[in-house]
């Protein structure tokens, strides 16, 4: 199966320790051994936030801040590449084309951000669409898609399953309410929708659980199904 | 004044004739002579649509289609560059950095699309933000921002003035309703919002009117004002 | 067999319809399945002519016009790449080196123009020479090499077979007479001559016939043979 | 005046000594001080021939040999850049675009070859056309354009003046006769013809004479005039 | 005066706070206003060390670690660029050529590392040599060049002045003793020596003192003088 | 076994003749056939020295001279590539990353210099470290590592075997004495030391002997062993 895994920066390297990165590499290597074709997109996490905050104080505009964030995602990518050793493309892929070429020659491409004003959420979806992936997995710091921001609203429910249309509507709603954190951003949701691609949003703090979701389809997060696939509201459940 | 002008592809070269491109070049040259610093972003228009349709039939995915669209925007950019002669950077700027360097050395940068999954609407806003433009002008095929799609809903009203927040809300609503054409896309609206940048949306079929809007602030389109600026609903008017 | 196929723009996409491109892709895929190593160079066709005419009116010089033409050849290349799907290198090869690397890793490289003042005829010959191709095929809008321009001179005869020296002499003559269209340009003819490479010039409007020429050597066009190969004037025939 | 000077490799650095390069730099600096806008294209000369011969023995094909030649032209360009110091663009321009940008920011661009299957003669003409030069000067190892190869045919006459059409016809004739050396190649002649550009072909062994030709129009070589300019056959003279 | 300033990463952004970066920007802007031509090379500091340590645990080899370090130096460079605003080249210069071009067009280039196995100490010296700088300033975490590592050996003396030869000998000695920290590395010292360039090594924790050293030549660090310049051992003094 | 071979320019092409290059190609092809993974770094040799001398007279600084030297190393690399034909990456690898990608896809990468202020000695060591080579071979113009410069000091002894620490100490000593030629430079020695990599320094004038050293470990040069490996001073012997 061709899978793109989007690993949030704070999930991959919460405090720049090697452990979590090692675990991700081990999980990806096992999937690679089982014959899956893999691409990875990593986020910026705490280092990105730190640099961005300082640069903002120094007068950088938002696009310049995005460029700093992109540079940090690629630094994080280098950590994962070091851990994946010879299986990964030796440097972070800076464009979708580079990533696709790496995938075609049998390497695991590791991407970070690609361009200002586009999050790694969106990069993940676009890259998955570009390589015609069978599955897109968001390994994030929240354990799925919720009806509201679970950090704010204790009544927020986690979806077990939803359609891409439902995802887009939900994210659009969440983004309209300042302060609400959506698990993926609207552009990512729309790309998922237009591509008719299966996606999973789940807790990325357990790399082995991420691998299991890919291997067996079983996980505690949210399945996003292409529109037209039967979805049963009874499948929805509390978090 | 530093101004980024976003010229839709069907507005710049409706049928690939030289006339309209010449008029745009003349209008931009006059502004350049008056001391304005200018950047231009051009869209894809009919040639892009034609190539994209054919490529879609041939099995290209959406990202590949975006890349084709980007290539056409740069072709259109070459037409404008030819007409602007020595005033323009000699080739279309492929990144925000390239465009910014051109601007700094006194050339008029002409950009097209920059990356898949990002429209030239969004590129225009991001580039304007990147170079700290004073004004962003969308010269489009519709004469402003309407409360609904004027081609569909005869009761659609054109806004004379609105805040960036109002723009974001409106576009988000329009995008939720399939078939409704928004004058700029949601990402562009959000960039305008976060940058606190003045923007104008107006009919691009009269290049001289576009220049006049920049020169005098007078136009028949819609002014988008940074949040916090006083906006008077009484200023809203029918189309 | 290693073959470079030069497909004229008006032959590949006469009116930007998908059909012809699909047929070319099918023909190339069959050859690929049979074990041939393939490289393709595509021309500019009607879209190139349209953009070039407009840019010329706008004051572009010939080199700038060439650059516009090159951009369109690569757009056309993207159509063929879309149709060839995973068999083609994912983006048009912009240099001979890129094309050669694609070929070496088992992809079908699709090139357009490479540099100003060099036609895709010449690019095809140079690329064929660079990769040491066994055969170069020009799939053009005329059905072979004629003793004169068949559109002008009803007495023009099609050659069934000729030497590279004869081709160079003929093209040199044709190019001296303004208004005469040569099937390939002089630089291409000279590269064929110096490389000692077999070439075929034939009607490109039937992709299946192009494939058959490669597969069996049988076709209704003109064989250009390396100098020193026996050529029998009796083989020359009327069109 | 905007001038492109094409300096043959064996003229610029006959035996890799610094003297001739210094003289060229001095001549160009004087012209620069007088307000001329200058671009330079340098050839390969003896080092190129030596490497090419060895690479040919080692099995390189003609395109690979061209690439070696290009690399040497750029090495030679670095010598001239060293001598021109701060007036030149700091590295050889590898494309027409790079050269043009250097020219626009006030540097003297130094180009070598740009792409296989295109001589520095042709590069010079194409670059001159691209930047809309007023004059193109070929500083070569022969003192002008002759009716035949003066090394072979003692009856060869040097033209004092000729039209671009006459140049193209002459070169085409010379190229048809193996062993005849044309002072510029056919592609260069055709670009001169289509661009309607003034050109001078003269002995490059005296850099000061090259500068004088640019400064005063007086020289002992051959003037190539755009078609339509009055040319008087009586002006033709023996060498 | 043309000056290259090498700012250690832990000196520029000891804990990624904006203050120190702001102070450096202010000091550089004042020098820029006074007419000095400036280039800056920034180091990696604590973030580099953190990433490198993690990557080493993950199995990266030394060259890969160098690449990670380089990426961090450029991130740090982006902070300084943000603070310098329009005076700096908009992105970190990745090669000596890029930096030199920025300098020539009047921008302040900000470089980080350029290639593996070469420290930013060496980059600073090489860049200074490349642009023919009048002065190279190392703003480091130690207040000058000492006869031994002052953190280890309480008898270490700071040199007020020394020749390039003496610097090379001293650094060579220090590098032979594991654990001894040299203020600049041996390659840097050798480049200073061969270039015959003035250099200053001083405490970088007070940006204003760095500016004063450039402005007046007065400082509490060590002057490194080109060989042949009179140096008086009596000038040597305790730290 | 993964091996990086560093071939000095005067060893590869003493007088630009094809013979020696052919012999090297043959030796490398044999090793390739036997299953070794090979990377090659070539030096500049006499052509580099000639260009550098001329450029120095013309006023180039040391960094510019290094760039000229790098360009020549890549020219020499093209000779070897021509001779290796389809086994080599088609163009010289300009960065460590490029070289590594070539190696991973089964081609023999040929590198020259990569950046100013870094010799091909150092490039060889760094590239070997980057690709985790098992062995690094210096095929030089001296037949091993000597206790002093054998051209100057008749008492100089050749080491049969030494540790990396001993190599670093020796080279540091030699470099301190102007006029003494070290067989590899200090940076190279230090990289060998830190990488814990086996190295051989031997006479490169007999390519077959170089191949034999790789194949069997037997040679007349010097073995450099990682620290910690048992080394017996009794193994040291006269030249």
Structure description:
The structure is a homohexamer of 239-residue chains. By secondary structure, chain A is an alpha/beta fold. The first copy, chain A, has a single domain, classed as Acetylglutamate kinase-like (Carbamate kinase). Helices cover 46% and strands 14% of the residues of chain A. The first copy, chain A, is built from 9 helices and 7 strands; from the N terminus they run E-H-H-E-H-H-H-E-H-E-E-H-H-E-H-E. Chain A has helices spanning 9-12, 18-33, 45-57, 62-84, 96-104, 120-130, 164-176, 186-195, 207-216, and strands at 2-7, 37-42, 110-111, 135-140, 161-163, 198-203, 222-225. The first copy, chain A, has a 7-stranded mixed sheet, with helices on both faces. In chain A, helix 6 (120-130) runs parallel beside helix 8. The longest helix of chain A is centred in the first third of the chain and has 23 residues, at 62-84. Chain A starts with a strand and ends in a 14-residue tail after the last strand. The model of chain A is unreliable at 230-239 (pLDDT under 50). Chains in contact: A-B, A-C, A-E, A-F, B-C, B-D, B-E, C-D, C-F, D-E, D-F, E-F. Chains A, B, C, D, E, F: ATP binds at residues 9-10, 45, 49, 140, 146, 149. Chains A, B, C, D, E, F: Residues 217-239 are annotated as: Disordered. Chains A, B, C, D, E, F: It is an enzyme of class 2 (transferase).
């Amino acid at each position: 199966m061709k899978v793109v895994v989007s690993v949030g920066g704070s999930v991959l390297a919460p405090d720049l320790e090697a452990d979590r990165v090692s675990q991700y590499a081990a999980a990806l290597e096992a999937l690679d051994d089982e014959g899956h074709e893999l691409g990875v997109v990593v986020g910026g996490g705490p280092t990105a936030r730190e640099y961005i905050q300082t640069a903002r104080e120094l007068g950088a505009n938002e696009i310049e801040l995005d460029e700093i964030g992109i540079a940090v995602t690629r630094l994080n990518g280098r950590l994962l590449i070091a851990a994946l050793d010879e299986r990964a493309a030796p440097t972070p892929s800076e464009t979708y084309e580079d990533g696709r070429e790496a995938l075609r020659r049998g390497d695991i491409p590791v991407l970070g951000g690609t361009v200002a004003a586009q999050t790694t959420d969106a990069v993940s979806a676009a890259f998955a669409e570009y390589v015609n992936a069978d599955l897109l997995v968001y390994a994030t710091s929240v354990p799925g898609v919720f009806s509201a921001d679970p950090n704010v609203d204790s009544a927020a429910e986690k979806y077990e399953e939803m359609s891409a249309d439902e995802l887009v509507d939900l994210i659009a709603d969440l983004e309209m309410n300042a302060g609400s954190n959506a698990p993926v951003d609207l552009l990512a949701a729309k790309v998922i929708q237009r591509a008719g691609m299966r996606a999973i949003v789940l807790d990325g703090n357990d790399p082995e659980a991420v691998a299991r979701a890919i291997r067996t389809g079983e996980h505690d997060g949210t399945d996003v199904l292409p529109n037209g696939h039967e979805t049963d509201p009874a499948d929805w459940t509390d978090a």
